[in-house]
Batch of 2 targets.
Target 1
Amino acid sequence: NAGVTQTPKFQVLKTGQSMTLQCAQDMNHNSMYWYRQDPGMGLRLIYYSASEGTTDKGEVPNGYNVSRLNKREFSLRLESAAPSQTSVYFCATSISMGSQPQHFGDGTRLSIL
Amino acid sequence: QQQVKQSPQSLIVQKGGISIINCAYENTAFDYFPWYQQFPGKGPALLIAIRPDVSEKKEGRFTISFNKSAKQFSLHIMDSQPGDSATYFCAASSTGTYKYIFGTGTRLKVLA
């Protein structure tokens, strides 16, 4: 029973490279989220998907795109990585939007040189 | 109005002591106030949560106190243990929106 699985766990990129962060959940949750965590800034929402087939921008969407591939999978893409995108990225899920517990993966640590 | 202000930034407590972390919010539409615990290298995990219809919720050694009029809520960890050493985040959200506003975190260290 894995919960929320993120791949890869670590990645180093050069400026301008692209990559996709993967997230898969086996909790049968409808809503999925991508956050970034930076020191002293808590967790900031990048994009979210309220349900399969929908995606919307969060607080800090610039430089990112997402795909809700199906109910289980929600990917985050960096088209042209910048050093400012060095961060720890977390995927989370909840049974529905709003005032519900969120369940997090263990994160992807991304460094952009 | 969307911020959740968390204090202190860091906290050192002796084993067996009480750890207290505070959060304040402005948006009166918030109706769900969770606390998350995060260990190094791991994602945040829900610890305990409260809704504004009660003033206190206790689960084992962890208690949330909620003051609706002051728009404040706090986490109390009784009989703190070295295994409680982690970063704690408060958060707030409101029904029907996607917004889940996190505080900036408190790094707790419990000395053995």
Target 2
Amino acid sequence: QVHLQESGPGLVKPSETLSLTCTVSGDSVSSGGRYWTWIRQPPGKGLEWVGYISYSGSTSHNPSLKSRVTMSLHTSKNQFSLKLSSVTAADTAVYYCARVAIAARAFNIWGQGTMVTVS
Amino acid sequence: QSALTQPPSVSGSPGQSVTISCTATASDVGSYNPVSWYQQPPGTAPKLIIYEVSIRPSGVPDRFSGSESGNTASLTISGLQAEDEAHYYCSSYRSSSTSYVFGTGTKVTVL
């Protein structure tokens, strides 16, 4: 059974960098055919795709976030991470990590989410 | 602003059917950008309920069905149950920009 778990600070100051890690169990971040993704949801609002890193390390991110997004794979720990720089209150959200099965192009496994407040 | 538009809310009585639309530009909905659907009950993480327009993952009840016509994808819940009360989101993959987009979301209320 595949399980994803987000971790990181719940409070970040404006202009600083938000850092989150997703720990994967039951699958390998190095396995082919996967995108490891980040999705966020501001309080009371809808879902917003942040970006993904593939099993090979290639990345793609939401153009609206410009160049603030950095994603990495940590294969020895079976984790992947998100860094979002120069945060503002608009980045306050629940952040979810999720797995995409590339063949299905759908987010088929989700973490429980972690709330990050910028203040 | 999302490129996938959903109605803000739909409602129905137990046992009835409701349909949620997901309308996009031609670049987001089509043969090479299959739509998926997610259910999000209050206070929980979203869950995949339909992928590749109409395929249900294992464990998803068959009262959930998906379809597509032109630039609009649809999710139908037949035989509405109280536990179906949740927010529902569509999503599509944009192959031209290797990115994903979510719909605006629809709240389903069981009367």
